[in-house]
Amino acid sequence: MKQLAFILIFVFSAGLLEADAASKEMRKPNIILIMADDVSWECFGSYGAEDYKTPHIDALAKQGIRFSNCYSTPLCTPSRVKLMTGKYNFRNYTHFGYLNPKEKTFGQMLQAAGYKTAIAGKWQLNGLYHGAEGHADNTRPFKAGFDEYCLWQVTRTVHDRKSGGGERFWSPPLEQNGKYLSVKDNQGKYGPDIMSDFLCDFIQRNKDEPFFVYYPSVLVHNPFVPTPDTIGDAPRTQAANKQPKGKKARKANFVAMVNYLDKIVGKLVDKVEEVGQLENTLILFTADNGTNVQITSQWNGQTIHGGKGSTTDMGTHVPLVAYWKGHTPKGKVLDDLIDFTDFYTTFAAMAGVQLGKNDPIDGRSFLPQLNGQPGQPRDWVLCHYQPYWGRFQGSQYVRDGQFKLYRDGRFFNVPQDLKESQNLTTGQASDQGEQIRRMLQQTLSTVPPAPPIQGGKDSNTRPVYPNWKNIVNPND
Question: Keyword set for this entry (predicted)?
């Protein structure tokens, strides 16, 4: 009888183990997307940086894939809208600091697929800067598909001191799940620590079901100020958010901020490993645009000036590192073109979501590459750029990994001419270059007109083409 009971217990336990293994096998993979603010390829060791120490990001690249041809737009909001909606900016971008709440985001898509979702970092999408309808609505992040949030600039701008706004770093005013956390509430605390702690707690609480974490970091946007590793005994009030006047001191703070960003990346990876989800989690690291123009860096023996706001390589070429233990090939460097419209489509493929009529058509999934397969890489990426903000001017171009063609006909061999100072007129490029020029010209003939070159924040002309045809059927 005892032997029979032992056999029954053994069979029952084996069944439970088998069911648990099957459950883990069927579970959808987690996704963590980390996006740095105003810092690009010349600032990360795995890309050839000489001035910075980024061991955690470099480790992800060493263990996974480093993409050498990922492209954003030159400025934060156009990039974020493009990334979150999977659409080229000609379809839906109208104002700086604004995501139309009618737009479907990757958060909503993954939420509908059964994911627990969280966002922490920089929001700045309510339309505060032009007083959009509903700009004071602190539920916008919820409505955009996030179950939880811890964000800066939801209903208060950085300059809105009288109503509780302020800077993002020391003693920052934040909004968390609908609750306003004032400067006093966060006195002496460091914004990036608050936000990353929030995400670590979210991962801990949701480790048993698929989760999506979107971390649009406030690092390393100016003001360039000390981090917890460099501030020492100085006061940690809002006054600590004033950057020094000297160029050398600003650069020193910027370096410290890049290094601290890397430290936070390591912190998130460690949390995923701690909860036993490293083999079931895709971790992506990228940036929204080029480095601030105040910053000069040494890269692969060259001096690189930050290109934020411009359509040169220094403004639109961003890092993309992907690590998914057991899936991504170890130490792979891929030249495949990746556009910011591709993230939505890739996440849908990971979640097993079949894209429908309410989903974007502009992206191409790079999930096959994440699994070590060739995939169907793009032939080109498109930048349709008019931020309607500040001194920045509109532009439109298509490019492959080597050549770039602007709407006005300018043509550059980018790796050999990062500053785009040598326009190659017809016949001046190589045979291969001229062939690529013709291909890019054909692509430009299928896209909407270029945005107005002059288009500041008060512009009355803001054309969009939401129903423009599918250009080359990127979704295949």
Answer: Calcium, Hydrolase, Metal-binding
